[in-house]
Write a structure and sequence with these properties.
6 helices; alpha/beta; eight-stranded mixed β-sheet; 21% strand
């Protein structure tokens, strides 16, 4: 069983992945594949249903920004260690497009030694593989106090109202 974490805690995953051929429930929090979302063609069941999307790492998130902004959760996939396109997707979504929902990293390459880099790119939560210890992985967020890579979390803190000195007159 895989665990869901964010810095400092193991999360209770309330989101349910729905197979492409399964019926949609009337309520709850569900994750649909990008292909399934497109096949709905706007025909979303009425009710108390929140829809998150699992995006392929080949998707041009800039071209589809207007379709993505309304979803409270986007799951970006890392199918292998050699494929880091989801890093770029996360950075574009958070820094350039201003996505404010939850970005979740998932897939084979979401491992302890990558977690701080994933956080630096804008990910909020991390779906661990079943062979990883969540408590050990949470410790990864405190491994380094500085980063060579620009850090979105640090930039957000610096730009927060009241967090900087007033401009000289």
């Amino acid at each position: 069983m895989s665990a869901l974490i964010r810095p400092g805690e193991v999360l209770d995953n309330r989101w349910i992945e729905i197979a492409d051929d399964a019926d949609l429930p009337a309520s709850g929090q569900v994750i649909l594949s990008w292909a399934r979302w497109l096949s709905l063609d706007g025909q979303i069941p009425t009710g108390d249903l929140q829809i998150g999307l699992r995006l392929p790492n080949t998707l041009d998130v800039v071209a589809h920004a207007s379709q993505l902004q309304s979803h409270p959760l986007l799951v970006l996939d890392f199918p292998s260690f050699a494929d880091g396109r989801a890093y770029s997707q996360a950075r574009l979504l958070k820094a350039r497009l201003g996505y404010r929902g939850e970005l979740r990293a998932a897939g084979q390459a979401v491992v302890r030694d990558q977690l701080q880099s994933l956080q630096n790119c804008g990910f909020d939560s991390y779906q661990l593989r079943g062979d990883q210890d969540p408590a050990l992985c949470i410790g990864a967020f405190a491994d380094f106090s500085a980063s060579y890579q620009p850090n979105l979390l640090a930039m957000r803190k610096r730009l927060r109202p009241g967090s900087h000195a007033p401009l000289a007159q």
